[in-house]
Amino acid sequence: MCYIAAKEVLPIEILELIQNYVEGEYIYIPKREENKRLWGSTTTTKKEIKLRDDRIYSEYKSGICRKDLAAKYFLSKKSIDRIILKEKNNTIEERS
C-alpha cells in the first residue's frame, strides 16, 4: 500500500465533498470485495511456512524437544506448541 495525493487522482468535486468529512488526514479506501486476494496468494510465503511447519512436526515426532525446535527455528516455545498441535490435528483429519 502506498500514499497517493488525492488531488492527483480525484476530481475536484469529489475532493471537496470528502473535505466536508476529513481534511489534512490520511484516509484508507478499501478494495472492492471482488478485487481482494487471499493472504499468501501472490507470494510463496504460505507454502514456505507450511513446509517449515511440516519439518518442525516431523522433527518433534523424531524426538527433538520443543525447546530445541524453538531455538533452531527462532520461534517461541508457545509458537512451536501451536504448530505441533495444528499439525497433529491435520494428521488426525487426514486419517478420517
From TrEMBL:
Any Pfam family: Mor
Residue stretches making up the Mor transcription activator domain: 12-95
PANTHER family: MU-LIKE PROPHAGE FLUMU PROTEIN C (PTHR37812:SF1)
Organism per entry: Clostridium sartagoforme
Protein name per its UniProtKB record: Mor transcription activator domain-containing protein
Signal peptide (from-to): none
